[in-house]
Amino acid sequence: MAEPKAARDPGAEIARLIDIMAELRDPDRGCPWDVEQDFASIAPYTIEEAHEVADAIERKAWDELPGELGDLLLQVVFHAQMAREAGMFDFADCAAAISDKLVFRHPHVFGEESRDKSAEQQVRDWEAIKAVERAGKAERGTLDGVAMGLPALTRAIKLQNRAARVGFDWPGAGEVLEKISEETAELVEARDRLDAEALDEEFGDLLFVMANLARHLKIDPELALRRANAKFTRRFRFIEAALAEAGRRPEDSDLAEMDRLWDRAKAAEKAGRAAE
User: What band does 118 get if pLDDT is binned at 50, 70 and 90?
Assistant: First the structure.
């Protein structure tokens, strides 16, 4: 990791960023692209930047992380600037909202409650506090407030966690595995019937139950899938490199040969881990 730079004034740097964003959005002197944007057009970039932060952390690319976090911060400033122009709110309101929420949700730190409690008790207290917040927003249902725009796997986990808090949950991973077998059989049945609509539905049910298994095993399914994607990428690139040594490409090969090369890549990875 690079040597830390000289300390900067966070407030001054945030103020500078806010001023830059205001200049970019100026109808007369700003950037035409920035001026044309709205909340809906910027939202996908906000999601993308959050994923890039997660990717840098997963790769332990600490030298890239400040830049990726800066890109994510820009998204907040961009939305806040558009809201300020519309007379709705500004960046200070965003900062005040999260500060107020943190103080309210941590009475054992900022209030008079004792910090002498277990992690389990803190989770229960946290949920009780959030229930009060949801009541203030007229969110009465157990599943109210789980954002529709979340990645599907993440939203599945949040929905299942909410339902589990009121007792709607399997006792353990064993029962979830049984449900996976049941959903797999239903998926095969839909495939054999050539029922495209049912096939889509049953596949979704299977993914939902797989997310529930991850929850019971305390696995982050998004992270697990990202790692599986990275593993697939490494091994397929091994196949491409091995074929390239013979002056060939994957389309010049066949499944049997590429499968053998895949096994070689897998064995090489295991040997590398054993040598560490």
Answer: confident
